[in-house]
């Protein structure tokens, strides 16, 4: 096992934005992932990868404050997220923007109202300024035409783009995307990738993506971890491209090359 | 862009030889609320053949508010037929700006409201008739499904029927009991005041018995069940609608009428008459409780008077009424759930509507039954 290459050499000297140390996630007595540790550098696009059901979304849930880990620490810059009280979590959470898997738009409000609500709640901006920023954010995701439509009138991809506009509502510096390009056509998906890169470059946001869209991950992500459902922990660290080209773990290799896992080699390794 | 200048966001326009220079400086952060708007006519005097360029070396931190400002600028430039050279902006700002459409969409005007009472009444009548038809059709389909189930070819699962029966029966015993007990007690209270004046205390027993068996128990139980179970059916089915679960059933060819609706309606139609009998009993117990404590009535006398006052056909009539109420509440609430839209608000609206239609419908049906009873002389 020692010759297995699962850790990308560190070359990145940007400051650390998020550190996760020995985090264990469990529902009751059922452990989903244990002893997961990683660092996310400021301004990087960090991919959380792994097969279906390995706990990617659960990890994301704990990072956005919906699930308390049973063990471990989670720091956002210097702030220990789970150590503080509710008020401190809300304060740290104001830096987050989250794009949920199916958009999670509030169905009783129009798309424009969805994007405007966080601004109305948390800023003192004037209604016309808010309206202008809402138009801008919807314009960035190409959804300006749907500003007065209700989520139930939109297609899945449109809901996702509207959800992205809402996630950017307060100009957060940490964005979490849960399966951003799943269910989108290749053109929209490529456009979304460009948008994510531009948001990172333009607004300096740190982005954490849960995804298994390989082509998109190779294109945009510059760091990441690979979670395994059987070992219930992170089995490789590095950018998707590095994992594809250098990682020798058979599971990661099969995933990155869209191959079937050779059962004999995995048995010999496990 | 991370170099912090920490000044207020500022811009100014300066005509130069062969170009117009827009200088941007300071921190452009939306939430600080200080970012200026681009005035509409500011590019009016700019010569058409000279481009607008940008100087950004004084620009500090910025977020989407800067992009918003530049977007405005770009739009007014378009109106004034002036070229904007966005390549002179920081590259990421230029890229974000390129994602935005040139022309903002026209706001859609709100639909005009006409005051047309006759049309509204007509539409309401048509809608109501249509609904009556739909509910009857659904009832017929469910009944066909029920008959198919009887010969073993149905699509209803026993486990669904059992869980619905449990939710509509044993789980409702407490609330039905409490309400009917109190109704019986209240009837006894009210009756005793008047009857006592005539030394006719013992007739409290027959008053409570007749009132409970003929009207109160059936109606009160139906209203409780409309609020409790009818609302739950509507919420459940409309949530399934919102999650495309109903669509999935239809694609598999599983008939919604016998898979979903039949067990719900059967459960209510079956438990409602039983709950009615239970309610009668508990109501009379409530009446007895008050009479025993407040009036000079012996338990045996109360029992005797109750038996005297109640011919069996009163029970039959109430029993039939309850069955109809149960079927009505079950069918209408399922129909309202199926017809609901796909948002969270729609689920709320469906549940509310099911309760309102259920309660109003039960009372209206009861009035119809009163007329029938009068005609056939029960």
TrEMBL record, chain A:
Record has Transport as a keyword: yes
Enzyme Commission no: 3.6.3.-
Q: SMART domains this protein is in?
A: AAA (SM00382)
* Species per Swiss-Prot/TrEMBL record: Komagataeibacter europaeus (Gluconacetobacter europaeus)
Output the Gene3D superfamilies linked to this UniProt entry: P-loop containing nucleotide triphosphate hydrolases
Q: Which InterPro entries match?
A: AAA+_ATPase (IPR003593), ABC_transporter-like_ATP-bd (IPR003439), ABC_transporter-like_CS (IPR017871), P-loop_NTPase (IPR027417)
Q: Does the keyword Nucleotidyltransferase apply?
A: no
Q: Which UniProt keywords apply?
A: ATP-binding, Hydrolase, Nucleotide-binding, Transport
Q: Which residues form the ABC transporter domain?
A: 18-254
Write down the top EC class of this protein: hydrolase
Q: What's the protein here called?
A: Phospholipid import ATP-binding protein MlaF
Q: Name one GO molecular function term.
A: ATP binding
